[in-house]
Design goal:
Number of domains: 1
Shape: globular
Strand order of the largest sheet: 2-1-6-7-8-9-10
Number of strands: 10
Helix content: 25-40%
Structural class: alpha+beta
Strand content: 25-35%
Radius of gyration: 20 Å
Length: 227
């Protein structure tokens, strides 16, 4: 299906918003990391196991990534590839939501998995303002892969991610936060966490541009001109 939420996937949507696909758990209020992990059914881990060839000889250069609850193989990765577990991804999202900002309190908006758990995401709403009668929201999308094909990414977006379609749309933008799963991934994640304020600052900059545009008069003739 287009949303790529399989029978072994789930998601949670906060703010009492039902996603277009009608799947998942809908929560009226804000989400903590622990609540999001449980509601999105992300309370499983990635275990790593040896890989064997047809003659049952160990392939020492690679290992399996296996989902702990269903035992499904999520991917075959090189030795040294290190997972970032689901609860850790939501902890990072919660850390972003706890960054002090006088203008707006960030919240965890959505979280879930796709393709049987091969992709996991968490979405943090980092800003909300009204301009010219319309409400504009900004988000920081955190996405992570357990299949060996995706790094941990942080992408600024105005797309509310609830499925594969919206994830792909959001990630057309450049990801300022990009952490590979090579050895030492936790240390690099910790370093990235030290600069969490950039998401809130980016939201403020975006809204400043919107506010300036709202105050800028445009004539009918000028609006009809093509550049």
């Amino acid at each position: 299906m287009a949303h790529e939420i399989t029978a072994n996937d789930h998601m949670v949507s906060g703010s009492n918003v039902t996603p277009w696909h009608g799947l998942g758990t809908i929560v009226a209020g804000n989400l903590t990391a622990a609540e999001a992990v449980k509601a999105a059914k992300l309370d499983w881990e990635v275990s790593q196991e040896p890989v064997f060839d047809g003659d049952m000889l160990n392939i020492a250069t690679h290992q399996l990534n296996r989902r702990s609850d269903t035992r499904e193989v999520l991917g075959v990765v090189k030795k040294g590839w290190q997972p970032v577990q689901n609860d850790r991804l939501l902890e990072i999202a919660e850390s972003i939501a706890q960054v002090d900002d006088a203008d707006f309190k960030a919240v965890i908006e959505t979280a879930g998995s796709l393709k049987g758990g091969r992709i996991v995401w968490a979405l943090v709403r980092t800003g909300e303002r009204e301009f010219a009668g319309s409400v504009h929201r900004t988000y920081l999308l955190l996405s992570n892969g357990h299949d060996g094909l995706r790094a941990l990414r942080g992408t600024l977006t105005d797309v509310r991610v609830v499925c594969a379609n919206t994830l792909g749309l959001a990630e057309r933008a450049v990801s300022p936060l990009y952490v590979s799963h090579a050895r030492g991934v936790e240390a690099r994640v910790a370093t990235a966490l030290e600069t969490l304020g950039w998401a809130n600052e980016a939201s403020r900059s975006t809204f400043a541009i919107y506010a300036a545009l709202e105050r800028t008069p445009v004539s009918t003739d000028k609006a009809g001109q093509r550049q």
